């Protein structure tokens, strides 16, 4: 087993996904939910992220080539989506009661994607897949993805302890802070995408 490849990909993907950094946003979006619904949302988000990352690992480059889409465009789209979520957090719209459909939507978007399975995670996965040259190495990369997603699930699963400590007032403050941080992440994603586009197309001008 190529432990070096496993370690490199595991650490890279774990840093990009940033499970501790996900907790404030996760609690901001699900803090008002019952514990059972919050745990279900976390599980759905992780499963969706796992499916998206594996899907792009297998056929991501082929799909982007077919659609004539560059990776910076995918990054900018993720940034724009996060801007919308950040505005909801900052304006307090997530404090309104949500039904089952809303809960499912929160788990899928933005938690599953683009927060967990975002442009950074997708690009990193595609780059490591390009480095793999055998079935064993592909299995190693798949194991690393599973290990990272399991780590994320554990962090989200036990975030309920933080909810009990913060109480509603603390969750409201955390929601506003998470919205500000998420807005900053979104702006950075868009700025990186613009810079990548400039580098990509400037030599052709």
UniProtKB/TrEMBL annotation:
The keyword Protein biosynthesis does not apply. It is a multi-pass membrane protein. Its main location: membrane. GO terms for cellular component: plasma membrane. The chain crosses the membrane at residues 6-33, 45-64, 70-90, 111-132, 138-156, 177-202. It holds the Pfam family MarC. The keyword Transmembrane applies. Keywords: Cell membrane, Membrane, Transmembrane, Transmembrane helix. It is found in: Cell membrane. Belongs to the UPF0056 (MarC) family. This is UPF0056 membrane protein. It comes from Actinoplanes awajinensis subsp. mycoplanecinus. The lineage of its organism: Bacteria, Bacillati, Actinomycetota, Actinomycetes, Micromonosporales.
């Amino acid at each position: 087993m190529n432990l070096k490849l496993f370690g490199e990909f595991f650490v890279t993907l774990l840093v990009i996904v940033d499970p501790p950094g996900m907790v404030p946003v996760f609690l901001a979006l699900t803090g008002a939910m019952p514990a059972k619904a919050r745990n279900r949302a976390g599980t759905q988000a992780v499963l969706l992220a796992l499916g998206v990352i594996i899907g792009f690992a297998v056929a991501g480059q082929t799909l982007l080539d077919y659609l004539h889409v560059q990776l910076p465009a995918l990054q900018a789209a993720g940034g724009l989506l996060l801007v919308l979520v950040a505005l909801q957090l900052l304006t307090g719209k997530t404090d309104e009661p949500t039904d089952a459909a809303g809960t499912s939507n929160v788990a899928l978007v933005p938690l599953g994607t683009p927060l967990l399975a975002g442009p950074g995670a997708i690009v990193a996965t595609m780059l490591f897949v390009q480095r793999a040259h055998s079935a064993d190495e592909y299995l190693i990369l798949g194991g690393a993805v599973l290990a990272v997603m399991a780590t994320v699930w554990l962090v989200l699963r036990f975030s309920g302890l933080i909810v009990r400590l913060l109480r509603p007032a603390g969750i409201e403050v955390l929601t506003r802070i998470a919205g500000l941080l998420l807005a900053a992440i979104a702006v950075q994603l868009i700025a990186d995408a613009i810079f990548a586009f400039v580098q990509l197309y400037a030599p052709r001008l």
